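Limitations

Structures in this collection are predictions, not experimental determinations, and the ligand pose is part of the prediction. Treat each record accordingly. The example that follows, with BIS(adenosine)-5'-pentaphosphate as the small molecule, is included so readers can see exactly what is and is not provided: the inputs are given verbatim, and the output is the predicted complex.
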Amino acid sequence: MKLLIMGPPGAGKGTQSEKIIEDYNLISISTGDMFRESYRKQESLGLLAMEFIRDGLLVSDEITNEIIRRRLFAKNAEKDFLLDGYPRTLNQAYDLDNILEIMDSKLDAAIKILLDDEVIIGRMSGRRVCSICGATFHIQHKPSKKDKICDQCGGVLYQREDDKEESVLNRLSIYHEKTKPLVAYYKERNILFEVNGNQAFDDVYQEVKAVIEAVR
Ligand code: AP5
Ligand code: MG
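Predicted complex:
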């Protein structure tokens, strides 16, 4: 199964991905996580990407397509996966289609999480992320048991640099301009499914699960 989870920044893509990969034994391929991991290791790719990420801008299609190509064409690359946050421009969607064609495969579903901009801003201002394992919390909706400490690995929680207000506003406007056209693109291919992101975690997941069960 090859799935794509899409939607505005802070919609809950990463949160839902964690459950999907566990229940359906998939691996998650998140370009945002890949860039942050590369930055954490102080690699040149991560350092370059963070220049854009910090301000809420997109990393170039060339760089992004290249890391996805390397990942999907790697030796022992998994056949089944869940893409989170890639593609986000039409150019990236075309490139992904080319890659999948070479793999003699296709996407089974593009699951879009719907959420209004006002809710998104609250989701991102309250998000905290583990500096070691990347687990995501929210100061109101999903607080860690100990203040600023990850429940899973004991790492220190931090606020993502691109969750500051100015970056969030940039990310939202770029989403509306560059990523929204993908909705029509996947609708035309009859693989677009929308779920309501403005519900409790588990209720969103029930809708996501219903989509996956319908296409698997
Ligand atoms: P990326 O990391 O993908 O960021 P994003 O798309 O902006 O999405 P987020 O990760 O911020 O949100 P999410 O939808 O995963 O929400 P989450 O589950 O954390 O990308 C970062 C940057 O990298 C981009 O801005 C760009 O610069 C670059 N980049 C990445 N991919 C790229 C690409 N393809 N091309 C070019 N550049 C690229 O949830 C958010 C918060 O809400 C959490 O605190 C969570 O606990 C809480 N929450 C989640 N669900 C619920 C719920 N149902 N109820 C209450 N709270 C909830
Ligand atoms: Mg995410």
